[in-house]
UniProtKB/TrEMBL annotation:
It comes from Dactylosporangium sucinum. This is Signal transduction protein. Residues 5-120 form the Response regulatory domain. Pfam families: HDOD, Response_reg. InterPro entries: CheY-like_superfamily (IPR011006), HDOD (IPR013976), RNase_Y/CdgJ (IPR052340), Sig_transdc_resp-reg_receiver (IPR001789). The lineage of its organism: Bacteria, Bacillati, Actinomycetota, Actinomycetes, Micromonosporales.
Length: 383
């Protein structure tokens, strides 16, 4: 097997020596190269391919944020990881846009190894490098213009309440995904798995979220892709919002946060492909979306459910599970005004879901619940 190639960047030689010693057990699996500056790292990346670059944040000359921004532009197929002891808000915000994963110093070797091993794994067997290159380049996702205005207005207010901030954030798919990426990292203060916009804002803190929006890096209007793209984005957005509401009703309490998040993010790959025409060359938007969520380190049940959204589910009678709850919600929403017209209805599979013990155990009329979720999604759309 070809060894994974990992590039470590830190201006302190003693830090690099410590990494070299603590990771010597991985020498049979990784080719590890060590650079003492951003300029040297870029020279090495230009000379030969790497799978992962691990950078400190504060370095003289070119700092970690600038280095990783260059890597994202020139070598998007390289996963970008921050390993730093400096978490000042301004620098953290800059690196949050450019990085994929984040760890604080000191971190034990096991944590470093675990994250790097995850990043060397590519989720697409058919289009691995192409999908990684597309997903790896993503720093923000297109947002409907009305949502840009709402996020900016709500989160820009000095006296904004957490509930109002969470409500505004949860109405934007890409912004919610970015919040989940950051809030699931100990680098940004996470202590437990985060699965909703509200819990993400609570974990990050309102000042950090406001600073992220104010910096203008995480919210980009879809206007530059034209009115047709905005119309398509409207369809994807409404379907996802309605499915997320319904999945929350259908899933068990333990699975509910994961099912809601997965339903909201089910077509996040489509948002990437809206901005990246290379998707037309082979990779599907499903592959791209799963790879992006994997790179961003979202909880596995969310990533797996997004990956399986288009697959027929045959859940055991004991419970639907996250993926089946998302699939069932999707199929029910396909019967409503919030349907995606480009997809089928799969009536026979939906009938099997509606006969499942988990759904028949309550007197809920699930078709009516789907219609209500569709209507609520339409009402919450701000133009």
């Amino acid at each position: 097997m070809t060894k994974a190639r990992i590039l470590f960047v830190d201006d302190e030689p003693r830090i690099l020596d410590g990494l070299r010693r603590s990771l010597r057990g991985k020498r049979s699996e990784w080719d590890m190269v060590f650079a003492t500056s951003g300029d040297q790292a870029l020279e090495l990346l230009a000379e030969s391919p790497y799978d992962v670059v691990v950078s400190d944040m504060r370095m003289p000359g070119m700092d970690g944020a600038e280095l990783l921004t260059h890597v994202s532009e020139r070598h998007p197929e390289v996963a970008r990881m921050v390993l730093s002891g400096h978490t000042e808000q301004e620098a953290a915000i800059r690196v949050a846009v450019a990085g994929h994963r984040f760890l604080t110093k000191p971190s034990d070797a096991g944590s470093v190894v675990a994250v790097i091993e995850q990043l060397t794994h590519r989720t697409s067997a058919a289009h691995g490098i192409a999908v990684r290159r597309i997903a790896g380049a993503v720093r923000s996702l297109p947002t409907l213009p009305a949502h840009v205005d709402e996020l900016t207005a709500v989160l820009g207010a000095a006296d904004v309440e957490l509930a109002d901030a969470a409500s505004a954030a949860s109405r934007d798919i890409g912004f919610t995904a970015k919040l989940l990426q950051l809030s699931n990292s100990v680098f940004f203060g996470a202590r437990a798995r985060v699965t909703s916009a509200e819990s993400a804002i609570n974990a990050l803190g309102l000042p950090t979220v406001q600073a992220l929006v104010g910096a203008g890096h995480l919210v980009c209007s879809s206007e530059r892709w034209g009115t047709a793209a905005e119309r398509d984005l409207d369809v994807v957005w409404r379907h996802a919002m309605a499915a997320a509401r319904l999945a929350g009703l259908m899933a068990t309490p333990a699975n509910r946060p994961y099912a809601q998040a997965a339903a909201l993010l089910q077509d996040i790959g489509w948002l990437v492909c809206l901005a990246d025409r290379r998707c037309a060359d082979g990779p599907t938007h499903r592959e791209v979306g799963v790879e992006l969520l994997h790179l961003w380190g979202l909880p596995y049940p969310i990533v797996a459910a997004v990956a399986e959204r288009d697959l027929r589910q045959r859940p055991p009678s004991s419970g639907l599970g996250v993926a089946a709850a998302v699939r069932a919600a999707h199929l029910l929403i396909q019967q409503t005004d919030a349907r995606d017209p480009g997809l089928g209805t799969h009536d026979d599979e939906l009938a099997e879901f509606l006969a499942h013990p988990q759904l028949t155990a309550t007197p809920t009329d699930w078709r009516r619940a789907a219609e209500e979720a569709s209507a609520q999604a339409g009402q919450s759309f701000v133009r």
